[in-house]
Amino acid sequence: MTGAIAAKINETEAPLTINDLMEYMVAGCKAPDAWRIGTEHEKFLYRKDTRAPVTYESPDGKDIKTLLQVLADRHAWTLVREGEMIVGVTKGKYSINLEPGGQIELSGAPLPDIHLVARELHTYLDEVRKICADLDIGIMGIGLRPKVSEQEIPPLNRPRYKALFSDENYANHQRWGMLTAAVQCNMDYSSETDMIKKFRVSLALQPVVTALFANSPFYRGRPSGNLSQRYHFVQTDTQQAQRSVIETAFDTGFDFQSYIDFATSRPVRFILEDGLYQPVKSGNFTDLMAGKLPGYEGRRATKTDWLAHISTIHTDVRLRNYIEQRGADGGQSRLLIALPTLWTGLLYDSIALDEAYQLIKSWSVADMMYLRSHVSRSGLRTRFRVFNSVRGIALEMIKIAYRGLRNRAVKNDYSEDETMYLDRLMYYVATGRTPAEYLLDSYHHRWSQNIDRVIDECSF
Which residues contact 233 (CB under 8 A, 6 or more apart)? Predict the structure, then answer.
């Protein structure tokens, strides 16, 4: 790219200032009765005839592009394109997006309670399952593709991902994203003070959640030695960023500005220039705001750049103008609903939030990094301080969430409150075994080490 083109500024957006970033964070402050729960979950598609990953296009039409087109035709979704490429669909506040390895991700609407989150999931699955059945495509809920390697998956030729993966260093460290699937939820805050407490609780307890939801014990057709191979990849490649955000959040002066400083110090991976994604080789977001990004001198950051930039910060808790909980492996429906249920119970009742904060307030940065380094392998059996194991913390965490949900007292048409969605997590804590350990037990005994049975078991 020539210097003249690189310096060209998108005139439809004004250059971004630090005040703009502060206003963005403050805009997230909402009254408790306006708090919402947003859930995002990724799933794998595979061909039922061969168990191979479904590609974007194929000669027989059993592919991702056809799935998206039929969704639009049959269920009134609107196609989303990058250039000429179909990259997703939207309907109201819902969207289905494509991840780097062809995973499909539902980004749910912001909803006021877990009963509506559950209804949203089942509606989405019903629509997608029927079309996939017609195409002879299977849908799998697990944290990592159990049978193939990243080299066996053709990269999705999406402009955004082409820009990201053109950075060789990024590609070498993030190629595992072709294989992974997670479930995350997005939570609101009422003020800067409320954000601080929720963000700290989220960072401290995130590895406990990772252990509880561990559901990716296979890699390249055999047991990997980890209960969450997905999180093992994440932690290995993001350790410096994880430590940095924890140190920032637990500093006594932490506030919105502190997180802005952290985020703007992170490397810029790509920018959107003239409607096209362009890779960035060096420089951070502060450089872009100052018009000094190498190769793009004179080009200043916009809000679009900021939103894209935040999406490349791969920490397991992330702050936008809401809080993203990103530590859990993907799984079956009950786990996809259990994650937002857990965080709603912990964060959306003031008494529960105070109890959760008391649980973690004495933990050091070293404690939190220790947990991140061990839970992918040891799960609930990870040893930790006076609790003896992460299982003990998980039990206390679920009890607090249970009380928080009881206090919310949000009931469905059958007078059942939101605690009903915690039952599966209570089962895992009671037995001390994660979803991954149940899969491993079946793999070694009932399924005679047949990896295809794992795919069958984890299918919707």
Answer: 144, 176, 179, 180
Number of H helices, E strands in the chain: 18, 13
Q: Are residues 195 and 257 in contact, defined by beta-carbon separation less than 8 angstroms? A: no
Kindly report the pTM of this predicted structure: 0.93
Q: What are phi and psi of 187, to 5 degrees?
A: -125, 145
What string of H, E and C letters represents the secondary structure of 35-84? Answer: CCEEEEEEEEEEECCCCCECCCCCCCCCCHHHHHHHHHHHHCCEEEEECC
Phi, psi angle pair for 204, to nearest 5°: -70, -45
Apex CA 35: angle with CA 17 and CA 13, to 5°? Answer: 25
How far apart, in Å, do the first and last CA atoms of the chain sit? 46
Closest C-alpha among 44, 185, 68, 71 to residue 117: 185
Q: Provide the token pair at 246.
A: 């924890």
Determine the Cα–Cα distance for residues 190 and 196; give it in Å rounded to an integer.
10
Helices (H), 218-302: 229-249, 256-264, 285-289
- pLDDT digits over 84-127, tens only? 899 999 999 999 999 989 999 999 999 999 999 999 999 999 99
Q: What is the amino acid identity at position 56?
A: Y
Whole-angstrom Cα Rg for the chain: 22
Distance between CA atoms of residues 323 and 305, nearest Å: 19
- The CB-side HSE value for 456 (13 A sphere, CA atoms) comes to 9
CB of 189 within 8 A of CB of 319?
A: no
- Is the distance from CB of 276 to CB of 8 less than 8 angstroms? no
> Angle at which helices 64-75 and 114-134 pack, to 10 degrees?
120
| 145-187 pLDDT, tens digit each | 999 988 888 778 887 777 666 666 555 556 788 999 999 999 9
The set of long-range contacts for 309-314, using a CB threshold of 8 Å and a minimum separation of 24, is 309/263, 309/266, 309/268, 309/269, 309/285, 310/263, 312/164, 312/266, 312/268, 312/269, 312/270, 313/241, 313/263, 313/266, 314/174, 314/234, 314/237, 314/238, 314/241
Maximum Cα interatomic distance, the chain, rounded to a whole number of Å: 64
d(CA 270, CA 171): 13
Distance between CA 198 and CA 189 in Å, rounded?
A: 8
| CATH code of the domain made up of 31-266+313-457 | 3.30.590.20
- Cβ neighbours, 10 Å, residue 31: 9
What is the per-residue pLDDT for 40? 98
Spell out the domain ranges in the chain: 31-266+313-457
Alpha-carbon dihedral sign for residues 273, 277, 283, 288:
positive
Enter the tokens of residue 227: 């209960």
